[in-house]
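B., you asked whether I could sanity-check this one before it goes into the benchmark set. Here's the sequence:
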Amino acid sequence: MIALRRAIARIRGGGARDGSGAIEALGVVLAPPRPTGSAPVPGAGPMEGRGGSWCHCRMAQHPRPPAASADPVVPAESAVPAVPAVPADSAAPGSRERRPWLQGFAGAGLFLLTQTLIIVVAQGGTHLLTSVMPQPMAYLTTALLVSAMCVITVVAGYRLIVRRIGCREAPEMGGPGALRELAAGLALGGALICAVFAVLALAGAYRITGVGWSEGIAVGLIFGVVGGFNEETMFRGFLQRLIETRLGSWWALGTISVIFGLLHLTNSGATLSGCLIIALTAAPLLGACYLLTRRLWLAIGVHASWNFIQGGVFGSDVSGTGMIKRGLFEATFHGPDWLTGGHMGVEGSVVTVVVCATAAAVILLAARRRGMLLAPLVVVRQRPTARRPPVLVTVARRRRRPPAVSYTHLTLPTN
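And here's what the prediction gave me:
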C-alpha cells in the first residue's frame, strides 16, 4: 500500500509531463459518466469535479465518500437528462389513469343525473314561474336557473370523481386561463355557425322575415349550456381522456366520434345522414379542441356557442330535437335537405360538413405540431425464466421523442 501511494504521488507530481493521462483516466473510472458539456461541481477538487467525491483511496486530496444513509443520494449530475417536474395538480398527457372503468361509470352516472335534474328543474320552474310573472320572463328565468344548476353540478361532480376515484387533481376543469380558453371557444363556435348561415343566405337557402322575442331563445340557451358542459364533460372529459390513455389519440377520437353521432339518433327529428355528419365533423372538431389544450374549456365554449346561436338566434332546430321553431330571428329555409339540413337543422347541411371539417383539420394539425397527440400504448410481455417471474411491462410511445444525450467516451491509456 505504501509503494502504491508513492507511485500515485510520483504520477501526480509529474503533472502534465507524463502522468496527467493516468490521473485523468483514474478519475473517469471512479466517477460516474455525465453528459457532455456539464460544468464541474463548484468547490470540488481536481478529480471531484468529474463526479463528486467518489474516490475511495485515503489521500488528502480525495475526501472519503459520505456515510451511506437510508435515503439514496442522487448525484448532482447524472448521465440521464433531468425531466421537468410535473406540478402536483396536473397530469401529463397520456399518463396512466387510476380506476379508469370506475371513472367512466361514475361519469355516466353524473351525465344521467344532470340530464334528470335539467328536465325536473325546467318543467317545474316553467310551471311555477309562469303563474307569478310574464311568460317571456318566466322562460328566461327558468333557462338561467337550469344553466346555473347544470354548470355547478357538472363542474363539481367532475372534480369530485377525478379526485376521489382517479386520485389526482382535475386540471381539465380548472386552473389559470380557463376564462380565456372559454372565451376563445365561444368566439370560435360563433364564427363557425355564423359562417354556415352566411353561406346559406348567399345561396338563397336562408331568409330572415322578422326579429323579436321567442321562447326559442331560452331553449337555445339551455341547449347551449347543457351541450357545452354536460356533453363535453362526458364525451371529452371522461370517455375520450380515458380511452386515449390506452388506445392513443386517433383511436380515441374515432371511437368517441362514432358514439357521439349515434347517440343523436335518439332525438325525434334526427336522421341517419345527419348523425353521420355529426360523427364526421362536429365530434372531431370538439375532440380536436380538447387535444389542442388538454382541457375542456375550449370545447365547452365551441359547443355552447354553436348550439345557442344556431337555435336561439337563427331559429334552426338543434340536432333534430324538434323543440325550436324560431329564435331571435324568424326565418324560412328554401332548398333541398342536403343544403338546408332538413329536420336535422343546419347540422345536417353539406355547408356544415365543409366548415367544421376544415376547422377540425386545422386544429388537429396544430395539436400534432405541439406534440399533443399520443400513440397507442404498447404492451410487452417478457418471457419468464427460472430466475425471473413473468412480468408485464407497458410502454407508452409518443409522437415526440426526447432529445438524445451525448456522452464523452474516454479510455484508459495502454502501457
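One thing to flag: The longest helix spans residues 215-247. Otherwise nothing jumped out at me.
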